[in-house]
Structure of ATP phosphoribosyltransferase:
Amino acid sequence: MSAKLKIAVQKSGRLHDDSMKLLKECGIDVNNGVNRLKTEASNFPLELFFLRDDDIPQYVEDGVADIGMVGENVVFEKEKQVKIVEKLGFGKCRLSIAVPKNVEYNGINDLHNMRIATSYPVIVADYLKKHKVQAEIHEISGSVEIAPGIGLADAICDLVSSGSTLFMNGLKEVEVMLKSEAVLVANKDLTAAQQQLLDKLLFRMRAVRKAKN
Ligand code: ATP
Ligand code: ZN
């Protein structure tokens, strides 16, 4: 049997279209099968799995998928054993702390004893520890930006790109914890044949990006 690579791609959401576009620009034809769990490329030994982004690091660590396209923010939060092989240049955002705009903020020590709502408890805990700040982390899974307004938290940590969501919710960005973009991750134990396919794919991805610069 000849080697094949299985790639995990976000099923729908902010990374989906750019992920599919990148594959297409690499000359890989995929018969649009987004409504299915998986599909195959017709001209490259590549099988695609469409998944929630949060699940991608786990699937790649387990080898259910060999490689995946996912935000660095998710890779760092999930702490899975995967290799980051390439930055992909899309899905750019930052993971930031924000407080209500009328709250005075002079520096990270002002977060002391605050309740911080976030979907990124691991990254926030790391950041607070690094800066020796003691605060309470409230993990919530969505609509983090409304937490201060309903009295659930004093601050939030969430993904920001333009800042308009923060603004609309009366919040101001006060700390940037992480600058993130989509990356290609790989399983740590690829076979030599799979590594060769990955190298071929990487070569094409780099050519595509070079052509754009
Ligand atoms: P899923 O249904 O797959 O779990 P999701 O709702 O968790 O999707 P999306 O909102 O689609 O995730 O975001 C996917 C990724 O896009 C983020 O993890 C991040 O890497 C990137 N991203 C870029 N800009 C933003 C932004 N402004 N807000 C949120 N995510 C962003
Ligand atoms: Zn998600």
Remarks:
- The mean pLDDT is 96.
